[in-house]
Amino acid sequence: MSTEPLDNATIALSRRALLRRAAQLGALPLAGSLLAACGSSSSNASSGAAGGPSTGTIVLNNYPDWIGPHEISTFEKLHPGATVKQVTNATSSSAEVVLAFKSGQYDLLLADTSDTGQAHAADVLQPLDFSKIPNIANVTHSFRAAYPYGIPTDYGKVGIGYRPDIVGEKITSWHDVWRLAPKFSGQVVFIDLERDCMGSTLKYLGHSSNTVSPAQLNACKNALISIKPHLKAFLNTNVGQGLVNGSTAIAMDWDYDVAINKQQQPKIEWVEPTEGMKAYLEGFAASKSTGHLDLVQEFMNFLLEPKQYAQFVNTTGTAYLVPKATPFIKSTISKNPILVPNANTLAKVEFDRYLGGAGATLWANTWQEVKAA
Hints:
The longest helix has 16 residues, at about 355-370. The protein has two domains: about 10-155 and about 280-350, 3-Layer(aba) Sandwich (D-Maltodextrin-Binding Protein, domain 2); about 160-280 and about 355-370, D-Maltodextrin-Binding Protein, domain 2 (3-Layer(aba) Sandwich), CATH 3.40.190.10. By secondary structure, it is an alpha/beta fold. The chain starts with 7 loop residues before the first helix and ends with a helix. Strand 2, helix 3 (about 70-80) and strand 3 (about 80-85) form a beta-alpha-beta unit. It has helices at about 10-20, 25, 70-80, 95-100, 115-120, 140-145, 165, 175-180, 195-205, 215-225, 240-245, 255-265, 295-305, 305-315, 330-335, 345, 355-370, and strands at about 45, 55-60, 80-85, 110, 150-160, 190, 230-235, 250-255, 270, 275-285, 350. The chain is globular and about 65 Å long. Residues about 1-15, about 20-25 and about 25-50 have low confidence and may be disordered. The chain has 17 helices and eleven strands.
């Protein structure tokens, strides 16, 4: 079995690099290049006297091309005197995201639930006035509840992609994967990211994907070590690509990757395991250092307007969480059952949470033991 080791920054961004492939689903070009640099977020601004529109400059730390190609320009036209500058500042851990919030360079940042949980604990997040972000009501409630410190924008769940024509039976669970792995030794692929791989294994064992129990994490380690001899590889990019040509029979994979590969190979099937799924959830949160909260909140509200939000989804191909945007989303996404949120699916999902300092260390050490075994 091979592992393809990468440096920390590459690993942290690999999921996003994979997501950029998902633009194929929307059949739209990716957004243009982002601004490479910007000034401090302390540029001149007005908070909008007497309830008027806010002006000034806000700085957004975002992944490359992780926004609709015309969203910022449209917002600036609708808000004369307002400017949104984007930068890409790669981070390799939640701790580095917290430092980015604390740095004073950014007014709002793309961050997932683990990042925002740690940032909240460090008291570097700016509380929002959601009465000034009325479009938050467009977001499905479960996503809002799981992402309380900002506006959620997208999520991805980890399930199973497989080839029924190769496997010869229907897969419905993580237990099926562990049971079938010896039969298809060398044709099984797992994700090479600890939260995704260990979280899914914990679901297999009947535990929370956010547990910090040493006993449960030890059981997780043992389960992964037991299946490891039958894995073709741990991968963090192009995880399910082998399903297309049949070199992979079963893959622990993200929903969007299976959706892309299924377009190329209709024989691929997606499974939401009966034991449940772990999922990441991310969005935009405001830095406590921002001096432009009104403008930040206006921009957040704009991003959740259904037509604007659809532009983001059509560009990225992500699973989405604003049902009112459905009429404006490409049918290859909106009619894809893998990507459309529904109550049955969400009932099976557990979103990542901040594990705490000791918990994060325990997870990291456990993962290293798995990889070293």
